[in-house]
């Protein structure tokens, strides 16, 4: 089995007792995250890319919205994902230099 540490922010659903119990039951390690920590999760950048791709579309049904999101998500290249993941050392260094304050990321 591949070793990993699960990362999540402190959104209320993530901090709920039932969520914590689920991680404990599954024996999954969760990265300790302070309440005011910068959001370094690259998925946020991917969601921003998807949002930009669907911004001008005006779906009128839930099915159209789902299709727009799926099409935009499929258009995000593996290269883009790879670049975001490889940017983590720079992101972490920027947070360290900013002493935990906001960065360009």
TrEMBL record:
A single MF term (Gene Ontology): nucleic acid binding
Domain of life: Eukaryota
Any Pfam family matching the protein: DDE_3
Domain Tc1-like transposase DDE span(s) in chain numbering: 9-66
Name this protein carries in UniProt: Tc1-like transposase DDE domain-containing protein
Provenance organism: Astyanax mexicanus (Blind cave fish)
């Amino acid at each position: 089995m591949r070793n990993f540490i699960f990362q999540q922010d402190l959104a209320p659903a993530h901090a709920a007792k039932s969520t914590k119990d689920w991680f404990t039951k599954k024996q999954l390690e969760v990265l300790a995250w302070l309440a005011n920590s910068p959001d370094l999760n690259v998925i946020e950048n991917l969601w921003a890319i998807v949002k930009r791709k669907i911004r001008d579309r005006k779906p009128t049904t839930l099915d159209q919205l789902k299709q727009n999101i799926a099409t935009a998500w499929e258009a995000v290249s593996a290269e883009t994902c790879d670049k975001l993941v490889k940017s983590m050392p720079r992101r972490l260094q920027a947070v360290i230099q900013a002493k935990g304050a906001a960065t360009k990321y």
